[in-house]
Amino acid sequence: MTDSRERNIVQAFVDISNELVEEYDVLDMLARLTTNCAGLLDIASAALLLADPAGKLHLLASSSERTRDLELFQLQRGEGPCLECFRDGEAVLVPDLETEDRRWPEFVDAARSLGFASVHAVPMRLRDSVLGTLGLFGVHAGRLEDDDLALAQALVHVASVALVNEKSAADLGTINAQLEHALTSRIVVEQAKGVIAHAGNLTMEASFDVLRRYARDHGRRLSDVAASVTQRGLSGETLIDHAHAVGVLPASSSS
């Protein structure tokens, strides 16, 4: 393991562990989790699905738009490795999607069309409660190394604790309230991304980068900034101007 990768792994755990002692932004924390996984593991991208109190899965974070699209497709069709991982509470390892077209025919076709060749899903749990699942998507066939899988699972374990970080976290009602708030906030973030994309003629992925950077640079929660954008208290142009100023967007990215 190189010194650079060791530092990045440490930073990934620092990013999540800070949420245990501070008033945290759950959406930003989970977005960092997927981004860190994509950067640290031998995969192309990652996405996290979280269950609501009724046990229905929702997309909470993804490191790329094509992964977001695939996870949404998986949820709509009701088949795929991440759903199976959540249902059984066990990791689902698919080194080669070519071998699984009978198991998940629609999912496999969709994954192939987006350029993915392998999927590994690990459960997000707290004690006996399965909260969701983390999907790890590769563009090449092959099983992830055991060390990579262990690292992904460890990051998810710490994120699970951070997600329900309360003295009464063992209480199911507390867990459900935290998860429901996260799911509601995610909807607002998606709406804000749309506003920013329209204002600056940006992709949804670039819009999310703009939104996150503004929130971080101004010491505000991602969900709070998103709410301000959707309620017109903060214009998309203002966030885009800030992104230009700090170098997140090149001069030609807005129209």
3D architecture notes:
With 255 residues, the chain is α+β, with helices and mostly antiparallel strands. It folds into two domains: 3-165, GAF domain (Beta-Lactamase, 2-Layer Sandwich); 184-246, Arc Repressor Mutant, subunit A (Orthogonal Bundle). Helices cover 55% and strands 14% of the residues. It has ten helices and five strands. It has helices at residues 3-17, 26-40, 65-77, 81-88, 105-113, 146-163, 172-200, 204-217, 222-230, 236-246, and strands spanning 45-51, 57-62, 92-94, 118-126, 129-138. Strand 4 (118-126) and strand 5 form a beta hairpin.
Features:
single chain; 255 residues; alpha+beta; Beta-Lactamase; Arc Repressor Mutant, subunit A; 2 domains; 5-stranded antiparallel sheet; 10 helices; globular
Helix count from the secondary structure assignment: 10
Poorly predicted segments: 166-170
Please tell me the total number of domains.
2
Beta-strand residue percentage: 5-15%
Major pleated sheet: 5 strands, antiparallel
CATH architecture of the largest domain: 2-Layer Sandwich
**CATH fold-level label of the largest domain:** Beta-Lactamase
Euclidean distance between termini CA atoms:
44 Å
**What's the gyration radius in Å?**
18 Å
Query: What sequence of helices (H) and strands (E) makes up the elements?
Result: HHEEHHEHEEHHHHH
* CATH homologous superfamily placement of the largest domain: GAF domain
State the shape: globular
CATH class annotation of the largest domain: Alpha Beta
